[in-house]
Design brief:
Number of strands: 8
Oligomer: single chain
Order of helices and strands: HEEEEEEEE
Shape: globular
Radius of gyration: 14 Å
Strand content: over 45%
């Protein structure tokens, strides 16, 4: 018997007040405009819907599509630019 079940991360993120995730601070947001931000070590971004360009220092960038994740091991200044409407889960391990 297969007991695996897909996680609905969007529903989990929206229900975080009712069912808090231990040792995890999460923020669900809709990204519409490029926004410079300072990312702390241990933070990660998971694209739930859409496509997102993350501009990194020194001309580097990453393109994230639905279900792709980027983890930051060190403090970084980034700019988020949506290619299309994006639903993003941002979290930091406490």
């Amino acid at each position: 018997m297969d007991v695996r079940k897909e996680l609905n991360l969007l529903a989990l993120a929206r229900g975080a007040d009712q069912y808090p995730l231990p040792e995890l601070t999460a923020m669900l947001e809709q990204v519409t405009d490029p926004e410079p931000r300072h990312v702390l070590p241990g933070q990660w971004y998971l694209v739930l819907e859409g496509e997102l360009i993350i501009d990194l220092p020194y001309g580097d960038f990453r393109i994230l599509r639905a279900s792709e994740l980027l983890v930051f091991d060190e403090a970084t200044d980034v700019t988020l630019t949506p290619v299309e409407d994006v639903t993003l889960l941002q979290a930091a391990l406490d």
